[in-house]
Amino acid sequence: KLVSREFHPEDTVIRVGDVSIGNGGLVLIAGPCAIESEEQALTIARHVKEAGAQLFRGGAFKPRTSPYSFQGLGEEALRILKKVRQETGMPVVTEALDHTVYDLVEEAADIVQIGARNMQNFSLLRRAGQSRKPVLLKRGMSATLDEWLMAAEYILEGGNPHVILCERGIRTFAHHSRNTLDLSAVPVVRKESHLPIIVDPSHACGRRNQVIPLSRAAVAVGANGLMVEVHHKPDEALSDGAQSLYPEQFRRLCREIEPLIGLY
Ligand code: PEP
Ligand code: MN
């Protein structure tokens, strides 16, 4: 298999602008769940950049459980993301919700995200395989590692070798946490595959007070990066406010993981 270490013994390193993912350092991706306005996006982008984030995240097309919830600003958000890149120099990550918006999203994004709910959306995976833009493939909420790696295989087999895996928590019986962060996936994926793997503690736990400890653990277990939700006014966030860190907390996260980088 193309995703396996047997096929490709060296770690895959993905370059986005002057950021490398999978090279032994740690990439930090941060930003709001959703782009809500230009002012919101730029404010948060400046905060996270100053704290040490290398990439900015923000949803334009949002996969919401309820059709009545905020669905994202769509194309307007893509325009805002371009502005964020222009103003801050940070490459941007945003989700393509289905293959029909892929053209629009890949034109605007530096990394195209495929969300947990879409991990086995095969038309989307095939479309991502035809792209030259790196893809951030999130683990489905009940996917085994084999299913996840086979989803990545679709993209590689389609001709796009630039895939980053993202562990974001799986569904269990736990109620103390939105999902259960499966950190045991990290060393196993790193052994089985050459693809970089990052961890999203925000969607895993759903509560901001668990994000920093889970981030430390993810770095210690050998993740190639973190993706964290940050909002300057989480109480007013249109989605995922409860798990969004205040900018000050994100600065603390950056300080606390620093001594753990490269330990593994
Ligand atoms: C996200 O990262 O914006 C998101 C919706 O996450 P997930 O697909 O992991 O739920
Ligand atoms: Mn979110």
Radius of gyration: 17 Å
Strand content: 5-15%
Here the CATH topology equals TIM Barrel
CATH architecture tag: Alpha-Beta Barrel
Stretches where pLDDT falls below 50 for ≥5 residues? none
| Total individual domains | 1
What overall form do the CA principal axes indicate? globular
- Which sequence of SSEs, written as H and E, runs from N to C? EEEHEHEHEHEHEHEHHEH
CATH superfamily: Aldolase class I
Numbering strands along the chain, what is their spatial order in the largest sheet? 3-4-5-6-7-8-9-10
How far apart lie the N and C ends?
26 Å
| Helix content bin | 25-40%
For the largest beta-sheet, the strand count, sense and barrel status come to: 8 strands, parallel, barrel
What is the number of helices?
9
Give the ligands present: phosphoenolpyruvate, manganese (II) ion
Keywords: Transferase
GO molecular function: aldehyde-lyase activity; transferase activity
Protein name: 3-deoxy-D-arabinoheptulosonate-7-phosphate synthase
Domain DAHP synthetase I/KDSA: 14-252
